[in-house]
Amino acid sequence: MKSLKLLFTLLISLVALPLAAQTELSVSVNPSTVSVGQMFEISYSINTNAAGFTPPDFSPFRVAAGPFSSTRMQSINGRSTITVGYSFRLIALAPGDFTIPPATIRTSEGVIKSKPVTVKVVRGAAGSVPPGSSQQQTQQQPQSIPSASEDLFIRATVNKRSAWLGEPVNLIFKVYTRVDLRNVQPRKMPSLTGFWSEDYDLSQQAKFRNEIINGVAYRVADIKRTVLFPQKTGELTIDPLEIDFTIRKRVSTGDPFVDQFFGSFEHEQVTISSPPVKINVKPLPTPQPQNFTGAVGNYSISSSLDRTETKANEAVKLSITVKGTGNLGLINEPALTFPPDIEVYDPETKNQFSSNAYGMQGSRTWEYLLIPRHKGNFKIPVYEFSYFDPSSATYKNLSTGIYELSVLEGDTEGGSAYSSSGYQEKIKELDKDIRFIRENAEFEKERNEITGTFTHMGAIALPLIGFLVFLIITRKREQNQSDIHGNKARKALKESQSRLHHAEKFLKENRKDKFLDEVFHALNNYISHRFAISTGEISREKISELFRNSGISENTTRNYLEVLDEAEFARFSPAGAKDLRSLLERSHSVIKSTESELT
Amino acid sequence: MKKLLLLILIVYSMPVFALDPQAQFQEANKFYKEAEFEKAVELYEQLTSEKLYSPELHYNLGNAYYRLNEFAPAILHFEKAIKLDPGMEDARFNLRMARTKIKDKAEILPEPSIVLWWKSLVASKTPDGWTWLSIQFLVLALLAFGFFRLSKKISLKKGGFYTGVFLLLVFFLTSFFALNRNKHYVGEYEAIVFTPSVTVLSAPGDNGAGLYVIHDGLKVKITSSSDDWYEIKIPNGEKGWVKKEHLRTI
Asked: Where does residue A433 rank: exposed (0-12), middle (13-18), buried (19+ CB within 10 A)?
């Protein structure tokens, strides 16, 4: 049975062997003989699923491009095959025979190496046929991917490499191709620093034409047309334009006949950039004319004034036109000084020009609105325009004519009382001005003489004091009012004594009647006031009652009554009056005793 | 009798020195209308120096200075006019215009109308006017109290009492007006900068550190004074000291 096992193993290995033999990383060089500086292609392919492709060290060749990878799957009659390819563009730097070491790749079976390959580098002679370009290829080149530099490139063409500052330079980017382009996508536009640029002829589709360069036929298209105006002197660079191309290429099986009928295509993306272009910009020669502001090209000017006669405050239109080719769009607005008393508004610019290969061509017109404010004859100034003509490298000066504008009296100016000096505007009260003065003023003398002074205080204090006094008085008065009788009572004694005093005087004067009157009244009134009764109420009984109630002694009461009777009697019969002096004295004493007995 | 006759003679033979202010005012106005602003200013200024208080005078003077493009004096006199008559809308308007012409742009918020109404009310009489009125009310109040004191009937007493109280309150109010107005007349608490460019210092005296610079036409509040320096407060709230000579009080 051992031999059976051996046989089985052998059979299996036999089966496995061809499989192993089939997986191969093949390498090919196209062409295998190159000259120094020539670019050629090296490509690897494997017909199984693989990864981790590691290229060898290609020195002394320089890798110009790559790796480019491609994957193709094919299914014929149920059987599917896969092909993976890698390629590089190399440049030979020195003559000689060189061997490129193997590359490696990893498959399901392990790491596989390619065979080393030799390349023969000869000197000099250019003109080796670009690989993959013609259909008559030998079978040594099964698959070819077109070289991106010789089959497809971008050129930046300028009409001059040296220009004056501001002189138009025409720039066209052209695409040269020998391959089939499926898609063209600009990736990065050139920044064109130092230039003012104007694109022109912006047509949608680039049209291809045929050109032969170095014996090789190319299809060429203008992809971008710009006219440049250098804004700085010195060396300026037009930096590269980068474009992404999608190339359609045929996957060659090696047999061109088969290719034509059964070949398939694949798409590849490459990025190509144009080489930078240097432009030398010369400064404009000196001396420059006084009113030169940078116009370069070839120009003519014209002007017009719509009226030569007008009225004050009515507008006139002045137009100035510059016509020609050059940096027309970049020239400045005319700088004009108008006479005073003419109001000028910022001009309206009318542009009618477009860009082409020679620069900006057309015309520009500035329209000024002039409003003279006063009558008179005014000169509208000349417009002087200088420009630099690159073709003759000289400055040219042009000027418009002078216009005479005659301004008549305006309709709104009324009355000859005002001079035309314009001061009237000063005192006109417009919207955004201060309000007018007052016609009449109210004048007040300083009227704060007493406020806050002592006089003020006094003026306040006075009524208050007065009020206080008033209060005191009323209070007292009320007190007295309620005690009105007490008042009288207090006075009673005094009053009686005063009366008796008067009586004494009358007695001395021997005026008996008067004397008796006073005495009588003294006695009566004393009672009335002292006891707060009216004199009419006084009677003997009343007196007795009052005296008794007040606690006055019987003796005093009797005396009082006696004296009173005597006085009364004497009054009515004065002759019968006896001792008047005694009457007086007794009146005194009786009143005194009554008083003293009361208190 | 002889003495009296002599007095009358003297009085009537005296030449009239005092100018009629209204006439001079009118003359100044005439100069203004003829755009002779310097002459107008001269005449107006003369009137102000006569201690005559008139909002219209200061307003017209402010206008004249404005026309001469002297905005600091214009602002000063507009402010004076407003001080005398807070309700003078024209002066306020012109003040706003003048303020736009000065270097220091300070945001002066407009006063609410209720404040203006109050100020106008207080300004409607001179201080003495208010004082006189207040005394009258005091007397009336006391009379009312007296009436209250003396009357017997309850209703009359009540009437007297409340009337008295009310009149007393009016007395206090008018007194307050009098003192307030007096403060306006006499008090110096706002000023206008007259020097084109002044450095405000941190302390009075030339040794103070410079804080910031203010320019002519700016209105400042005076918070304190020392020798010939004022402590001022500018519209944004910052304080500092400047020499009195750079300011003119409103």
From this structure: middle
- Encode pLDDT of B102-160 as tens digits: 888 776 777 788 888 888 888 887 778 888 888 889 889 888 888 888 888 888 888 88
The separation between CA A450 and the C-alpha centre of its own chain, rounded to angstroms, equals 58
Range list of H helices, chain B: 2-13, 21-33, 37-49, 55-67, 71-84, 89-99, 113-123, 127-150, 154-186
pTM of the model: 0.37
Question: Cα–chain-centroid distance for residue A311?
Answer: 44
Give the C-alpha separation, A103 to A52, whole Å.
10
Best B126, B134, B140, B185 member to test A by mutation, with max A CBs in 10 Å, is B126
Quick check: B57 and A443 CB within 8 A?
Answer: yes
Q: Does the predicted interface ipTM exceed a cut of 0.85?
A: no
Chain B nearest CA to A488, separation (Å): 24
Nearest to A142, CA basis, from A1, A25, A59, A253: A253
Spatial distance between the Cα atoms of B86 and B88, rounded to a whole number of angstroms: 6
Q: Which of B52, B64, B131 is opposite residue A450, by nearest beta carbon?
A: B131
pLDDT at residue A16, rounded to an integer: 54
Alpha-carbon span A469 to A78, nearest angstrom:
140
**Mean pLDDT, 10 residues at a time, chain A of 599 residues:** 71 56 80 79 86 86 84 80 86 85 87 89 52 38 45 89 92 88 84 88 76 82 90 91 83 66 76 89 89 90 89 88 92 83 86 90 92 82 89 90 82 44 40 80 71 80 88 82 68 86 88 87 87 82 87 88 86 72 88 84
- Which string of b and e fits B89-119 if b means at least 16 CB within 10 Å? ebbbebbebbbeebebeeeeeeeeeeebeeb
* DSSP secondary structure letters along A279-319: EEEEPPPSSPPTTEEEEEEEEEEEEEES-SEEETT--EEEE
At residue A327, the 3 state secondary structure works out as strand
On whether any CB of chain A is under 8 Å from the CB of B65, the answer is: no
Q: Do B57 and A459 touch (CB under 8 A)?
A: no
Q: What type of residue sits at position A258?
A: V
Do residue B142 and residue A464 have CB atoms under 8 angstroms apart?
A: yes
